[in-house]
TrEMBL record:
<protein>
    <recommendedName>
        <fullName>Spermidine/putrescine import ATP-binding protein PotA</fullName>
        <ecNumber>7.6.2.11</ecNumber>
    </recommendedName>
</protein>
<dbReference type="InterPro" id="IPR017871">
    <property type="entry name" value="ABC_transporter-like_CS"/>
</dbReference>
<keyword id="KW-1003">Cell membrane</keyword>
<comment type="subunit">
    <text>The complex is composed of two ATP-binding proteins (PotA), two transmembrane proteins (PotB and PotC) and a solute-binding protein (PotD).</text>
</comment>
<keyword id="KW-0472">Membrane</keyword>
<comment type="function">
    <text>Part of the ABC transporter complex PotABCD involved in spermidine/putrescine import. Responsible for energy coupling to the transport system.</text>
</comment>
<comment type="similarity">
    <text>Belongs to the ABC transporter superfamily. Spermidine/putrescine importer (TC 3.A.1.11.1) family.</text>
</comment>
<keyword id="KW-1278">Translocase</keyword>
<keyword id="KW-0067">ATP-binding</keyword>
<dbReference type="InterPro" id="IPR005893">
    <property type="entry name" value="PotA-like"/>
</dbReference>
<dbReference type="InterPro" id="IPR027417">
    <property type="entry name" value="P-loop_NTPase"/>
</dbReference>
<dbReference type="InterPro" id="IPR017879">
    <property type="entry name" value="PotA_ATP-bd"/>
</dbReference>
<dbReference type="InterPro" id="IPR008995">
    <property type="entry name" value="Mo/tungstate-bd_C_term_dom"/>
</dbReference>
<dbReference type="InterPro" id="IPR013611">
    <property type="entry name" value="Transp-assoc_OB_typ2"/>
</dbReference>
<dbReference type="Pfam" id="PF00005">
    <property type="entry name" value="ABC_tran"/>
</dbReference>
<dbReference type="InterPro" id="IPR003593">
    <property type="entry name" value="AAA+_ATPase"/>
</dbReference>
<dbReference type="Pfam" id="PF08402">
    <property type="entry name" value="TOBE_2"/>
</dbReference>
Length: 361
């Protein structure tokens, strides 16, 4: 049995449907992320898990029990917010101890539990400090420790790192991964940051307009997006319009509009004549003055349209047909060489045909 099961949940605000028939389940011990652009309904879904909002229809089950009549404070669920929500007049220890004090635990048990949590979030030396004497990252670690102190079944995290600068955010991401592994509590994490979702999660549900577009492990979400929305939303992606010309077992031939034919992996149910898009990540593309025409690769000739030097990589925009632009990303791994090609250079590009995904929607 899954720890958390969301069954056909719908939430409306007046005429507007914020969450539209979402069903998914989360396993015990998972780091599960709801990812999507602003307004896609991820926070509303999280708030229903916490009990702050009620679904209009559908059910939320935790450990097999329907939560619909269980108020937020009675659910074995805690939430960590972007804004930390710490008590300013209490020390770090007092903040973390607060839920246990409210639950009537005895002093000794509280002390040992707080010590354990301070160690988990690496703040043992900071117990006597007040929130205003700590950095944003440290404050967020206190908020997480407080939310974990009575060992909830589920920890909900609503964009907890978005107030931190990029460097600190990366550091906190590593800490969150390690903390979740250590405490083994199931995390449901909300973010609009795709990099963060890919780095942290065991599985990701990508949401748009109140619905789940794709639910999978990060590697598959990234390398095999299910539709154009996911391909566009997660990282950079070339999306080339085309039509299936022939299906030959595990491979099919796709005619790319304005360019020519390429092979790609067959998609179940897709037949000859089907219109769609070939999705291809820039870093999957090889680029050189000349490339061998290999049997397991797709291949186009083109001309460099633009180059963007990014330090670790250079992005080349290559025109492979009348107005058809493909972005290729090459690592700058030769010391002293920033760019291998220049605008207007004639080049060839190639990619393993199974690196592309044919999308029908
Ligand atoms: P963000 O990242 O900006 O918080 P989100 O994906 O978390 O976005 P939600 O906060 O779940 O989105 O909101 C989804 C939609 O529902 C939005 O269009 C929002 O305006 C609307 N909405 C949320 N709460 C309410 C409310 N209490 N009353 C009316 N509309 C609401």
């Amino acid at each position: 049995m899954a720890l958390l099961e969301i069954r056909n949940v719908v939430k409306r605000f007046g005429d507007f449907t914020a969450v539209n028939d979402v069903s998914l389940s989360v396993e015990a011990g998972e780091f599960f992320t709801l990812l999507g652009p602003s307004g896609c309904g991820k926070t509303t879904l999280l708030r229903m898990l916490a009990g702050f909002e009620q679904p209009d229809s559908g059910a939320i089950l935790l450990d097999g029990l329907d939560m619909s009549r269980v108020p937020p404070e009675k659910r074995p669920v805690h939430t960590v917010f972007q804004s930390y929500a710490l008590f300013p007049h209490m020390t770090v220890r007092e903040n973390i101890a607060f839920p246990l004090k409210m639950a009537g635990w005895d002093r000794k048990k509280i002390d040992s539990q707080v010590d354990e949590l301070l160690e988990d979030v690496r703040l043992t030396q900071f117990g006597q400090r007040y929130p205003h004497e700590m950095s944003g990252g440290q404050r967020q670690r206190v908020a997480i420790a407080r939310a974990l102190v009575d060992r909830p079944r589920l920890l909900l995290l609503d964009e907890p790192l978005s107030a931190l600068d990029a460097k600190l955010r990366e550091q906190m991401q590593i800490e969150l991964i390690n903390l979740q592994k250590e405490v083994g509590i199931t995390f449901v994490y909300v973010t609009h940051d795709q990099g963060e979702a890919l780095a942290l999660s065991h599985r990701i549900a990508v949401m748009s307009h109140g619905q789940v577009e794709q639910l999978d492990i990060p590697e598959r979400i990234y390398s095999h997006p299910k539709n154009r929305f996911v391909a566009d939303f997660i990282g950079q992606c070339n999306v080339l319009e085309g039509t299936v010309k022939a299906v030959e077992g595990a491979t099919m031939v796709v005619s790319i509009k304005g360019c020519g034919d390429v092979k790609c992996s067959t998609v179940p149910g897709v037949v000859s004549g089907q219109a769609g898009w070939l999705a291809l990540r820039p870093e999957k593309i090889k680029l050189d003055k000349e490339l061998p025409d290999l049997p397991d690769e797709a291949y186009f000739k083109g001309r460099v349209h633009d180059c963007l030097y990014m330090g670790d990589v250079t992005i080349y925009i290559v025109e492979v047909g009348e107005g058809v632009l493909v972005e290729a990303m090459l690592p700058n791994n030769i010391p002293g060489v920033a760019k291998f090609f220049d605008d207007h250079d004639l080049v060839e590009i190639a990619w393993r045909f199974d690196a592309g995904s044919f999308l029908t929607e």
